[in-house]
Amino acid sequence: MVGRPRSEPPTTAIQDAGRLTPASLSQAFSATDFTGDLKAIHVPVLVMHGEDDQIVPIHSSAIKSIKLLRSGTLKTYPGLPHGMCQTHPDLINSDLPAFIRS
Q1: Which domain holds residue 40?
Q2: Is the whole-model pTM more than 0.90?
Q3: How confident is the model over 35-60, as pLDDT tens digits?
Q4: What total of structural domains would you count in the chain?
Q5: Is the predicted pLDDT of residue 3 greater than 50, yes or no?
Q6: Is residue 3 part of a domain?
Q7: Residue 41 maps to a domain
Q8: Could you give the C-alpha distances from 39 to 63, 64, 67, 84, in angstroms and in order?
Q9: What is the DSSP letter of 79?
Q10: Is 69 within the bounds of a domain?
């Protein structure tokens, strides 16, 4: 927070999530079947994915997810990596309001 002194260094989201290791998080995400959850969503959903994501390949995640959503829109980003929200925030942030308005 601005203006508030820190007594400890900031933590990452992974550290805040119960000190799970990246390997255990990856295992949990890759072994969990979200099919039923995705089919149960009844509101419009924007799926955004970088086409050069080397951590979560687009064909094993976004492409499969969009087929399960009743009202899904897939927005892909050529050449963008995993973490594109941090590496290209202006691009991502401009697409979100456009989806909401649609």
Answers
A1: 36-78
A2: no
A3: 999 999 999 999 999 999 998 899 98
A4: 1
A5: no
A6: no
A7: yes
A8: 14, 12, 9, 26
A9: T
A10: yes
